[in-house]
Amino acid sequence: MQSPELSIRLHANENPFVVPANVWQEIQERLTNIELNRYPGQAMKAFYASLSAHLGYPAEMLLAGNGLEEIILLLLASLGRKGRVILPTPTFFVYKQVAAALGLSILELPLIEDSWQLDIPLILKEVGLEEGLIIICRPNNPTGNVFPREDVLRLLEETQLTVVVDEAYFGFCEETMIEDVARYDRLIVLRTFSKTFGLAGIRLGYMVANQNLVEVVHQVRPAFNLNALTLIVGCVALEQEQQLLARVPAIVEERERLATLLGRLPGVKVYPSETNFLLIKLPFPAQPLWQKLHEDGISVRLVGNEMPQFLRISVGLPTENDLLLAALAEQLNAGGQQE
Ligand SMILES: Cc1ncc(COP(=O)(O)O)c(C=O)c1O
């Protein structure tokens, strides 16, 4: 069996770089002063103050959580019953999973096949003037593209929906709607420390929205939903943002190299990406190939039953990507379909 140390993790869209040594040292120094016998009220206050200064929005417009996964749960639990939860699909699977677990009413509307754009006329026709939540991942996971800002503005202006714009991959592309929050009361923007900051392990994400919406979500938030260790690391990350983000151009460059090389494999279609992952379409069902890669210690992501020929591949370190490319080339040249 493959030892865990050898496994190449290209399935979770993690940042492949570890925390830079000087940032890590700063974290360690700050952690020594925490009083772990206390609840993290002070640490929460300090983090909210830092985040507020960082974003230029008052703390009342912010809500931080244990990764965006917690924010998604809190959002759906507090606002998900206003109407249906509209999911342009394919999208980040957690939204459907949580909405279904909460017994919410879900409407999945397909993106336009292959361009992966929002089908705005279809959405407008289906939702009419109903209230409810629509989830827009921008860039989208697993398709990797960014929907035009104008499309999202149309949803805000021509529907009564509350629009959640998940910017988990902000920073790999510079597109953001965070400034629009000041103008639109029904716009919620989500961000995470997991991707460009490379801090998926601390579990930290946040939402930015109109104060009234934030208050509703706060009502379902556990009082101390964030722990002091995460909050301290979060503060250091905001202070040392430049150092953490300095690795992003290398990931983007490597994404483009990987995309080019994947595109040279026989029968493989690579979709343009504004993120740290690539969506590819194979000339045959992906599952057997996924299984073979898994046995070789390379983890990539199957995209779901509706998209059997697709794989989602995170951009790893160049050495990891080269191993993936070699394994894929071997399989594709051999026909790839052996069960
Ligand atoms: C679109 C999207 N939103 C949210 C998340 C979860 O982020 P977090 O690590 O903050 O829970 C992911 C993780 O892959 C994602 O792709």
Question: What key phrases describe this protein's structure?
Answer:
339 residues, alpha/beta, Aspartate Aminotransferase, domain 2, Aspartate Aminotransferase, domain 1, 2 domains, 12 helices, 39% helix, disordered N terminus, binds pyridoxal-5'-phosphate
Helix/strand layout:
Elements: E1 8-9, H1 21-31, H2 41-55, E2 62-65, H3 67-79, E3 84-89, H4 93-101, E4 106-110, H5 120-127, E5 132-137, H6 149-158, E6 162-166, E7 187-192, E8 205-209, H7 211-218, H8 228-239, H9 241-245, H10 248-263, E9 269-270, E10 277-281, H11 287-295, E11 298-299, E12 301-302, E13 310-314, H12 318-333
Parallel strand pairs: 1-11, 3-4, 3-5, 5-6, 6-7
Antiparallel strand pairs: 2-8, 7-8, 9-10, 10-13, 12-13
Helix pairs in contact: 1-8, 2-8, 3-4, 10-12
This protein binds pyridoxal-5'-phosphate (PLP).
Structure write-up:
This protein is of the alpha/beta class. The chain has two domains: 21-243, 3-Layer(aba) Sandwich (Aspartate Aminotransferase, domain 2); 247-333, Alpha-Beta Complex (Aspartate Aminotransferase, domain 1). It is built from twelve helices and 13 strands. The protein has helices spanning 21-31, 41-55, 67-79, 93-101, 120-127, 149-158, 211-218, 228-239, 241-245, 248-263, 287-295, 318-333; strands at 8-9, 62-65, 84-89, 106-110, 132-137, 162-166, 187-192, 205-209, 269-270, 277-281, 298-299, 301-302, 310-314. The chain has a seven-stranded mixed beta sheet, sandwiched between helices. A four-stranded antiparallel beta sheet has the order 9-10-13-12, covered by helices on one side. Strand 9 and strand 10 (277-281) form a beta hairpin. Helix 1 crosses helix 8, helix 2 runs parallel beside helix 8 and helix 3 packs across helix 4 (93-101). The chain is globular and about 60 Å long. It binds pyridoxal-5'-phosphate.
